[in-house]
Amino acid sequence: MFKKVLIANRGEIAVRIIRTCKELGIKTTVIYSTADKNSLPVFLADESICIGEAKPSASYLNIPAIISAAEISGADAIHPGYGFLSENPGFAEVCRACGIEFIGPSSETMVVMGDKAQARNIAQKAGIPIVPGSDAVKEPKKALQFAKEIGFPVLVKAAHGGGGRGMRVIENEKGAEELIGMAMAEAEAAFGNGEVYVEKLILNPRHIEIQVIADKHGNVIVLGERECSLQRRHQKVLEESPSPFVDKNLRIKLYESARKITSFIKYEGAGTIEFLVDKDKNYYFIEMNTRIQVEHPVTEMVTGKDLIALQIKSAEGEQINISDPDLNGHAIEFRINVEDYKKNFRPTPGKIEKLLLPGGFGVRVDTHIYEGYSIPPYYDSLIAKLIVHGENREKAIKRGQRALSEFFVEGNIKTTIPFHIKLTEDDNFIKGNLDTKVLEDKILDRIVKNK
Ligand code: MV4
Questions:
Q1: Is residue 347 a contact partner of residue 416, using CB atoms and an 8 Å limit?
Q2: Is 230 close to ligand 1, i.e. is its CB under 6 Å away?
Q3: What does the pLDDT read at residue 451?
Q4: Number of structural domains, the chain?
Q5: Does the pLDDT value for residue 50 go beyond 80?
Q6: Residue at 20 is within a domain
Q7: Of the residues 116, 207, 275, which should be mutated to test ligand 1's pocket, given the most ligand atoms within 8 Å of the CB?
Q8: Is 127 among the domain residues?
Q9: Could you report the per-residue pLDDT of 114-127, keeping only the tens digit for each?
């Protein structure tokens, strides 16, 4: 059993982790930057240690400072949350070398899954479907050769990218080599590695991901899917579970594939296997995320399982011998950002002058904001996650509308709450037409331009 956990993160996820630790009787230490001195995690944790200046490289990415804080506090384990160091194999390795349990998979697993081309190979070896495509390549000429073999249109993806950043559609052979060269230069600049791989472009796919948790004894539990197709510039806007598009038959296949790859790599901890699903319900592995994700609460709402508690149990080396939970009802998460959706979703950090949070039956708010809190400009713009649960999708949407209507945030800031209200009234959304193109092409345009 852990006695003390250090939380190497900030914001709502730091609050989320502190809450579960308290319920488990585990003491918490949170690290923070000078910009987060007055933050809710600092207030709620048993101990807090300021480790550096506001910029992430000086604080939330500062490995020596974080390890020193863990040593000083006597923490048994570090929870990295999401983002920051959560998928950094070097950090997991340093934790291990210092005798501190990293709450997540091994650094070796993170290395493999951090290389998206290698992950495709592993998936194929595990016997699960992948998008027709290539290995990682270093020369544009080689990538073009693969593209011709696969057949246009193709998508060039950064091997060390992920989450869709640094992708480029190549429609045909004309000018392809130059375009691929540009994609490689962008990948080099963004991820410090210019390797790319080529995939057949799947038209209007859905992004459906499977949540798993594995212990150190080979038990793998599958906790349903999340529908994450509504994205804007590769940022998820809202997520749901179950997916309105996944039927019994597809769910069985997705579960089986997720279990196969998780077992194959002897994964430990919470993980997410991302799939693309086309209109004919063919599905393809694209990536595995080796962290807890922003959208994990929708899974918690339909399974009744505390994923942070399961992560801790796994890291402690306990057996997780439960069967796959049934999915009960329907959950939707609305990401509330401080952004002006009418001005191209420009971030609007500032002070929260007045705040009224929604509540009541089937409503959950994961947030770190409070009245009088100033949102620092140095980090992401997520200020709250509104998660609603209902007996079915229709009732969950109605509950979402009710909860959004009583969510008031005032100050010299704008939030995406009005955007979400309009989204829940959109015909495409209500019908569950959630393929990739829908948000960017149809819904966004109508909401932003008020058409
Ligand atoms: C794709 C794709 C089409 N074909 N791969 C990858 C990461 C994910 N966040 C988006 N990714 C995509 N990969 C192939 N071979 C289209 C997307 C994609 C997408 C997929 C589902 C739902 C929304 C999307 C938004 C942009 C891109």
A1: no
A2: no
A3: 46
A4: 3
A5: yes
A6: yes
A7: 207
A8: no
A9: 999 999 999 999 99
